[in-house]
Amino acid sequence: MNSLPMRLSLTGATLLALAPMAHAVQPLPDAEARTLDEVVVTAEREPGNFAIDRNEIELTQAADLGDLLSNESGVAVGGGSTVAQKVYVRGFEDTLLNVTIDGAQQPAELYHHQTRVQVEPEFIRSIELDAGAGAATAGAGALTGTMRVNTRNAFDMLSPGRDAGMLVKGAAGFNGQDHHKAVVAAFARVGPNLGLMATHVRHDGGDYDDGNGQRVSPTAFDHERSQVKLNGQFNAHSFDLSAERLDDTGTYYERPHMTNFNGRFQLSDHRMRRETLSYNHRYNPASAAIDVRATAYRNDSRYQNRRNNTGLVYSRGQQVSTGFDLRNTTRLDAFDLVYGIDYRRDELRATQQATPPPFWGSTQQTARVFGAYVQGDWRPSASWLLSAGVRWDDYRHEVDAGVGKGASNAQSRPSPNLAIEWRPTDHLSLRAAYAQAFRGVTIREAFFSALYTHHGDLEGERADNVELGLAYERDGWYLRATGFRQHIDNYIAAVYTGNAEWGHWGNIGQAEVDGYELEAGKDWQQFGVGLGVWNSDNRFDDRPLNDADLGLGTGIGRTWTARVDWRSASGRSRYGLRARRVEDEANSIAPGAPDKPGYAVVDAMANWQLLADGQLVLGVALNNLFDRHYYDHATYGYNAGAGAYVGFPASGRELVTSISYRF
Q1: SS3 127
Q2: What is the pTM of this model?
Q3: How close are the terminal C-alpha atoms of the chain, in Å?
Q4: Residue (of 496, 492, 530) closest to 511 by Cα position
Q5: Percentage of the chain with pLDDT > 90?
Q6: What pLDDT score was predicted for residue 40?
Q7: What is the tens place of the pLDDT at every residue in 129-180?
Q8: Is 571 exposed, middle or buried (0-12, 13-18, 19+ CB in 10 A)?
Q9: DSSP assignment, residue 62?
Q10: DSSP labels for 501-538?
Q11: CA separation, residue 27 to residues 192, 193, 194, 196 (Å)
Q12: Are 124 and 57 in contact (CB under 8 A)?
């Protein structure tokens, strides 16, 4: 890949980072410099949505996406090895979801048999998940919503009154061949208003045992994550500059989320890498008219799948995305207005040698999208809120070399939205919303892009989303209910033909979902309970989705979640139970296919602050407490051709312990 965008991004980010330092200002007090650590999972930012703070991650001993999200309403995460974990929101796969990490968009889909979203929970500050097409500020192509991940900085980590510190943590999980994690972080206030943090995580896991005590192989992995983050807080300016790198390696079958069910899959050495450089700047003077936020980023995602008996490449690909988002917020007495522009350019190089030799291929593609948007909130009275917005996106896509060379696609389209909220009392709110989202033709999966051609005749995908919501909160009690219906027209997928070309990309039909989410609970000073249920009926051209619809979605049974939390009066110990019950789901993958069987899983957890101010923390979690054997419905399960379950079952009972020391 051309290194010029990387050099420009680094130069621009450095100049922007240095700009505020020209002002002589006083240091910010610790109370202003520190921010809350939280993971927020919401449907549409409605009142009554729950928040999971940083302590929740540590309490659950979250090691991957499954630990982070699988107990949240409307979300399912596939089981098996971490490399196979796909995220489903309301039954749709995360390929339709906008994902950002520290503001950097993550559009790359590399290989449909493995995960797309790579995150490390250890230094997450917040995750915000908005399901369904929504606000104009969600970014281009947010067909099923947006997930924003933000990482911690030095000011988050520093203890009050300290200018420097370190965190050392060790964790181990005991199941099968077990896994081990080592974490180290150094952070400091390097100037009156500057913070610098460097972190490194190494996580090695062996093959695990399922609920029947059977070894599940090959599922061992090796995960490394490093990050350096510089942040500053000045009078009207604040910024952070982050460089993050993740590596995941392991030896799996050619399709890492499946067993060798046909006896032909070969063991392959897999590697995934993500390198993200992002710069975020905020200028917020004492003016109702100005609150500027700017983000610039470069994201490099790549993978390689190499057969380890011959050393030949099965497939590989690299996608580099560079872009920016520039917006301003104007606040008046009863009216808030956000308006801005965003831009992203994607470059792909990919090769596959998985097919018979006549169809071995490679590709080079470029795509860009430019967007302009405006979103306004108007409060005509204390009881009413009207929100409306529109974004306009212009897409351009070209195949520069290899399979389908010379093909191009271009399309522009607006995406409006409208929402009304009524609060008849201080405790109750009712909401109705409608939104559209447009995703023009852009780069699709790297593996298939080196195999399936473009003909230049594609229509962009269009989504619409209708929601009705209710939220009630009073004296610690809460209730949230949401009903939704969404359609996605002109869905683009690879179409196999088997002629002179293996296949091509085509608009193949309409996907739709109808569903609901409901949560209720009560929080006391030291004790809390919650119960939730969600269900979605996902279809494509009037047939139910199934596990074969990779890249689109699958059928997931009605899901019940429950949680119990208790903390001591001193706040130095916390205890929790998490339970998830998934009901049977009809399997449409083939006539006569067995239903996806239901299952129930219970996790127990606790942590203790052994020294004041959280300097020394001991954590323990017992996942899958009753050692149930099951296949998560978000895992590829039953294969009609083999007449058997070919995905990996979930892990059996696992004891996870950790101890961390901050000084």
Answers
A1: strand
A2: 0.90
A3: 42
A4: 492
A5: 75
A6: 45
A7: 888 888 999 999 999 999 999 999 999 999 888 999 999 999 999 998 888 9
A8: exposed
A9: -
A10: SSEEEEEEEEEEEEEEEEEEEEE-SSEEEEEEEEEEEE
A11: 5, 5, 9, 15
A12: yes
